[in-house]
Amino acid sequence: MSQIYYYALEGSRYLLADERNKKHLIDGLLSAHESKDWPVYAFCVTDESAYVIARTGRAGGIERVIGRAARQFLQGYEGFSGEGRCLRVTAVEAVDSETELARRCRAVHRLPLTLGYVSRIGDYWWSSYRNYVNGQGWRMVNCRPLLDYFSDDPDEAVRKLRLYHTDTGVRRNSRQHPGKIAPDPTFIRQ
Prior knowledge:
alpha+beta, Alpha-Beta Plaits
């Protein structure tokens, strides 16, 4: 049975700080999902961690995808060589509803803002947010379910998604796990 999951990966110190490594990890994650035809709904890679929301085809599938992407990333890693480089899974959680999908996507997309990397969400390159608001970005990101959640009209859906993502009611605590940000039901599809 197909299931949507939120998962988080944490890298050893400085592993993801290099922009080339961020791109390499994203390409690996998207490629691993693409090879199984399992869509990715949202992602964000920071200097320390990566967060992904994606669908898998069966139970246990997410672990195989994460493992494949992590191995591929570590084989092509740009930077210091040594025993200390690692990528470990810090969370794997099922996403059970459209509301939960919207909440998790919002949290993942807002992470660069919360961490102080940028002053506007759309300015961060290593996230799927730009796929949603202007159609530019990474292959294999499926925006349709989240946009449909907000509206059947594409322009109205993007407008509501922007409002939902830029709402200032979100607590700004950089230590807060992205999955813990409270949902805001204001922009739910009507």
